Amino acid sequence: xxxxxxxxxxxxxxxxxxxxxxxxxxxxxxxxxxxxxxxxxxxxxxxxxxxxxxxxxxxxxxxxxxxxxxxxxxxxxxxxxxxxxxxxxxxxxxxxxxxxxxxxxxxxxxxxxxxxxxxxxxxxxxxxxxxxxxxxxxxxxxxxxxxxxxxxxxxxxxxxxxxxxxxxxxxxxxxxxxxxxxxxxxxxxxxxxxxxxxxxxxxxxxxxxxxxxxxxxxxxxxxxxxxxxxxxxxxxxxxxxxxxxxxxxxxxxxxxxxxxxxxxxxxxxxxxxxxxxxxxxxxxxxxxxxxxxxxxxxxxxxxxxxxxxxxxxxxxxxxxxxxxxxxxxxxxxxxxxxxxxxxxxxxxxxxxxxxxxxxxxxxxxxxxxxxxxxxxxxxxxxxxxxxxxxxxxxxxxxxxxxxxxxxxxxxxxxxxxxxxxxxxxxxxxxxxxxxxxxxxxxxxxxxxxxxxxxxxxxxxxxxxxxxxxxxxxxxxxxxxxxxxxxxxxxxxxxxxxxxxxxxxxxxxxxxxxxxxxxxxxxxxxxxxxxxxxxxxxxxxxxxxxxxxxxxxxxxxxxxxxxxxxxxxxxxxxxxxxxxxxxxxxxxxxxxxxxxxxxxxxxxxxxxxxxxxxxxxxxxxxxxxxxxxxxxxxxxxxxxxxxxxxxxxxxxxxxxxxxxxxxxxxxxxxxxxxxxxxxxxxxxxxxxxxxxxxxxxxxxxxxxxxxxxxxxxxxxxxxxxxxxxxxxxxxxxxxxxxxxxxxxxxxxxxxxxxxxxxxxxxx
Length: 762
Ligand SMILES: Nc1nc2c(c(=O)[nH]1)N[C@@H](CNc1ccc(C(=O)N[C@@H](CCC(=O)N[C@@H](CCC(=O)N[C@@H](CCC(=O)O)C(=O)O)C(=O)O)C(=O)O)cc1)CN2
Ligand SMILES: [Zn+2]
Prior knowledge:
Elements: E1 3-4, H1 17-26, H2 32-49, E2 56-58, H3 66-73, H4 88-97, H5 108-112, E3 119-121, E4 128-130, E5 133-134, H6 145-156, E6 161-166, H7 168-173, E7 176-177, H8 187-203, E8 208-212, H9 222-235, E9 241-245, H10 255-259, E10 265-269, H11 277-283, E11 289-295, H12 305-319, E12 323-327, H13 346-349, H14 355-371, H15 377-392, H16 399-406, H17 419-430, H18 447-458, H19 463-484, H20 501-504, E13 508-511, E14 518-521, E15 524-526, E16 530-536, H21 543-551, E17 558-562, H22 564-569, H23 579-599, E18 604-608, H24 623-638, E19 646-651, H25 660-666, E20 670-673, H26 684-689, E21 694-697, H27 710-723, H28 742-761
Parallel strand pairs: 1-12, 2-6, 5-7, 6-8, 8-9, 9-10, 10-11, 11-12, 17-18, 18-19, 19-20, 20-21
Antiparallel strand pairs: 3-4, 13-16, 14-15
Bound molecules: the ligand Nc1nc2c(c(=O)[nH]1)N[C@@H](CNc1ccc(C(=O)N[C@@H](CCC(=O)N[C@@H](CCC(=O)N[C@@H](CCC(=O)O)C(=O)O)C(=O)O)C(=O)O)cc1)CN2 and zinc ion (ZN).
Ligand 39S binds next to helix 18 and strand 15.
Protein name: 5-methyltetrahydropteroyltriglutamate--homocysteine methyltransferase
Organism: Methylophilus medardicus
Pathway: Amino-acid biosynthesis; L-methionine biosynthesis via de novo pathway; L-methionine from L-homocysteine (MetE route): step 1/1
């Protein structure tokens, strides 16, 4: 009998109930009780939706982030917040956000103001976690209260509960040693707390605990491999059975290590590492349970159930009771329920599965394995029909696009003249001062803007009224930038719901959902558009808005586009062709837009590649291939312009040391990057490489509500000028301003412009 389980369920809620509850609480518009009740209700509802499973996850719910939850469970908080008093959940939000809620302002003087925890990307996903901070003197103490409360709730509901925790080695590996000390030295102390935690769970009648160790799909050196052995040899005496969960990729060199950890079960990603499963069977000790992640937890396509069964049945035969079935990873990375999508094209919808549907697929597979395919005959037939329809659909295949791709050669990515020649021509035309000032694109997305769009989409505001409201926003944005004295202006992106979804909505080959929200960080969500077919740009996407914005000023107006790699990495993409092919198709579409902007007289065009760096494969051995097609795609999109057109690109996560050659190869005239928090250290890579083109190192950390001073920004630019010749430096914020308020943005930019003036004068 194969057992079914789930690694994690999306917690934001089918209608983003958690987001709205959190934001209302933070604004002081609702009580802590109301918030905790929403959490309870969501957990209860989600367990009910998973009731067909043999084991449901407990502890996967989080009010902000599962890594931060683990830090609290381990009693491991940054020293700067240790003295907090007041409510535990408020303290938790303080660590997460640097503040808690309007209601807890009573603590402002004693323990209110504090720097927020640093966020970074969870492996190769668009989810951000709060980074654990270690020092040589870090101590841990168990606080199992959150897990125990949720466990009690689940048990009361009759759920067969499987607590989920982050494993000790992954927890250490994804944290940061603030003092440069060796994190592994903390492992023995950490293991004591894990031992106590497992014992506490055992005492509550838990039989299995899922211990997430996704680090096992990355390249590990001998020390870290040893840490795995050390950790699990110590934890093996626990009374609960451990299911070590790996996901997001292949075990590769870590296969033997993973198979032989002294635990009762191993979960592997049978989507990304299917070819590893058979060799693994031979390696696995005879007592061990193997959990196969056979449903893709990272995309929204229906599983080909028949093909999966063809592969799975012989394995099930061999494993018998030792086989568990699950999604490949936590379902955190997919939307909740396809049923909510009443407006989605019915043909495309018939190809899709969100979290709820994925669990139904899992059930079908388990029934087929346990009772024979006849037991689920109808479900298999419907599924097969959807697979066949998708494969043959004219909606998916566009011969003209495939033909265009044939003519797509590297020549398309070649600028006419090298940078030195172009930059002289551009300088003569643009006549910008030294240290030119600009911004990254978006200005505050105010409640009024979102409300107008929401009414427009609901049909209560007509197109003309909506467009004139957006034009009024552009007017305001241009006016403000002119009075601030910025040199290169932007239109502010008011008309965009998101920098990726906006383009998805306008390209053929894309579908978009109404409720397909996926958590990005805290209460913030994104709605990745669904790339299902060959990509074509039926008409210009941004030209009218950009033209309008340019008509309001005599200063240069930057055209603002999202690049092909970022559109790809932040969409749900096709699984029936290589990612590189989808990326080249996007590149051709963006290229057309670039050329249309140029034709319209726009002299500066920015093509954001915020997700280029984060899209790097988890294993370094796969980087070269990725960078080759990613950079080629950018070049195709950007480099068809005249010498006189200035191409900008922007990237947020700027640790470029190991990929600086690829960044230079993009050959953008100007790159703006995120550097304010690192005190310009991130520029080292550019200095050592002798990066040849212009750079705008961010001097204003837009993730913080703090207003940077003129003096601070001057200092940062002086540091930059020690590394990069001043003639090639621009002055700009770290990233877009969409999440900030106008009240913060105006004084910050005023200081930034003043800083540029001071630098010019010096
Ligand atoms: N795709 C993507 N990934 C990314 C980033 C990014 O910008 N885009 N940036 C980084 C992550 N940063 C992020 C920063 C902000 C938000 C964010 O603000 N998200 C918004 C949703 C943005 C959006 O699509 N807004 C819609 C409105 C959707 C909405 O909630 N409308 C309300 C009404 C308006 C309201 O009250 O807000 C409704 O319909 O009920 C729009 O503008 O049209 C949110 O969670 O609130 C997300 C990620 C990395 N990954
Ligand atoms: Zn950015």
